[in-house]
Design goal:
By secondary structure, the chain is of the alpha/beta class. The chain is built from 17 helices and 14 strands. β9 and β10 form a beta hairpin. The relative contact order is 0.10.
Length: 498
Amino acid sequence: MAEYDSDTNNYTQSLGCWHGFVAQQKMISIKKNFGSTNKKYLYLSGWMIAAMRSEFGPLPDQSMHEKTAVPALIEEIYTFLRQADSRELSKLFRQLDKARKENDKVEEANTLHKINTFETHVVPIIADIDAGFGNEEATYLLAKKMIEAGACCIQMENQVSDAKQCGHQAGKVTVPHEDFLAKINAVRYAFLELGVEDGVIVARTDSLGAGLTQKIPVSKTPGDLASKYNNFLETTPLASLEDLKEGDMFIKQDGKLCKPVRLSNGLYKFKEGSNFDRVVLDCVTSLQNGADLLWIETPIPHLENIASLVNAIRNEVPSAKLVYNNSPSFNWTLSFRQQVYDEMKSKGKDVSAYDRESLMEEEYDGTPLSTLADDKIRAFQFESSQKAGIFHHLITLPTYHTAALSTDTLAKGYFGSEGMLAYVRDVQRREIRVGLDCVKHQDMAGTYIGDDHKEYFSGDAALKAGGKDNTMNQFEVKNKKAKMMANGTNGHANGVAH
């Protein structure tokens, strides 16, 4: 974070993963394509655990899944990442053995250098604890399990735990600050109890899209935190106690009696238009009481809107930094095309060739407007880190969508007229062309690691799976481009050279 504070080019990124294999392949790809995992992490999404890892089957993002599935996935991810280390180091030690056997001092020295400077695939995980899965004690117990499994950063939202909704859906109910701060304390206690003094807490507010609260906190002194929270409630004036109906309640605000607006389900409404100020108070309060980073759920990825919130927060806490959800719940194409359309129109440019509400249509692909929109999308992470205080960018559930898209593409071709060509052309050939190690799936699953162990354990008597009759030999890298990528090359990110 200190690096980001001194230079906002040093923002960090992560992608959401729902399985250890997905996380492993992501980190292998990063090392192959960029040479280092620096500032590139993993995100564990509660949404994807609910949708893909529950024994109940697919569930909505409402904290209905088994909470033990969260630390279980963290542990699974680290098991796969360590296996990636083992596999890569095994290759290097085989090279070292070969160099020594052939008395090749130069190759021996080069290989030893690679071993000594080896960079692990194991990276920090940002883990989603939803709204804490219960009271503050339940939050503490689960946070402890997550940290023991390996989580170094825990993200928690200010919704009611038993009525939690996805941040991009309606019906969100927030809790008073005192309740949320108690859970921040619980997570911090879990970190400290386990000796993790630099554990990171991300406090997420859903207040921008939430209009309800479950309870009214008790104000003890005028202007205290509960009083500020209650001032956001929608109320009706109360001229006399005689105006109260059976079961009604009232509070005193600014010396006057008023009745909070309560729905038939017992929830209380916030004032219309109070969302912005509630977000700011949420964020300031969280940072002043133990949180390290903020997360603000927004309806669209609009840089200026995000920056206005962060600037208001920084009036109280100048060092405030965001984790931002580059969510698949946004229609990025439509949103940015409409933003460009509005900018063009405000500058007096001719937009008669475009229908603002239909800009998602394929007919607009390749137009000057769509090109400008794509340029803005490409630069979004870089520019928002410069202008809106975003330290960490993540996509919550990208691999949910990539799995669906790749499967649809294969199924359409394979069961259609293309047959086996659909797999060969769109999967295997592409794996070979880009130097994807997973094309040798036996190797990726650990066959050669096992062979090495057998040889060390049993010597010449070892029955090994490798050798000339192993069909994986057909996939030895031949082309120049794949070899270069397999050796690792530096790349560019977000349209900005680093």
